[in-house]
Write a structure and sequence with these properties.
about 140 residues; alpha+beta; Yope Regulator, Chain: A; 3 helices
Amino acid sequence: MSDLLPLSGLNPLLADWSADAPARAAFVALRDHLAALPGTELAVRARPGVSWSLRATAGDPTERPLFVLVDVIDDDPADRWLSVCFYDDMITDPEERGDWVPKGLMGCDARCFNIDADAEPDTEQYVKARLDEAHTKAAG
């Protein structure tokens, strides 16, 4: 049995998350961006107190079960932040902003971007460009 929830599974998180938190606004913007990409399906894995994972799939999910994982790190609800991870071979990182994480996504090498209060102002836009890139590859 899968523990994945529909997108509405995020409702408890969003209801409890301060509307003026910078990471919340970035999360909502990334969620909405993903939802607008053609053929993208979104699911949620909720682990309150640990993380809330937004998983996006496109194309054949048997090849790879997702093309991006947007995690809300929830160990400190007063200071939540985002970790947005891609398979390393699905994106470029021309400005080398992401962290390379060996076997960091489903046992494969990953490239992850953190969005928190200290993130550069254009980080959200930079990550959206990576979302588009990964989606194009996943959708084939």
